[in-house]
């Protein structure tokens, strides 16, 4: 079952950074992909050190929260 197809630059697994819970889904690539992965401590360090990245990462997280609330 396909729930979503990610496009270049889109995030997956970001909900775990918000609620701290384990992943609730698996991700499978349909073809070759390049993946950028961060642990929670790595993300927190990046958010602390890079203000621009911090601001840019807020939009997809806010969209996810809005969608999950049904707004």
Automatic annotation (TrEMBL):
Residues 1-47 form the Cyclic nucleotide-binding domain. It holds the Pfam family cNMP_binding. InterPro entries: cNMP-bd_dom, cNMP-bd_dom_sf, RmlC-like_jellyroll. The lineage of its organism: Bacteria, Pseudomonadati, Pseudomonadota, Gammaproteobacteria, Thiotrichales. It comes from Candidatus Thiothrix singaporensis. This is Cyclic nucleotide-binding domain-containing protein. It comes from the Bacteria.
């Amino acid at each position: 079952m396909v729930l979503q197809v990610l496009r270049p630059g889109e995030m997956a697994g970001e909900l775990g950074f918000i609620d701290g819970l384990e992943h609730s889904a698996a991700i499978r690539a349909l073809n070759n992909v390049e993946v950028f992965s961060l642990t929670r401590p790595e993300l927190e360090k990046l958010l602390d050190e890079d203000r621009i990245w911090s601001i840019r990462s807020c939009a997809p997280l806010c969209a996810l929260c809005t969608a999950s609330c049904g707004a």
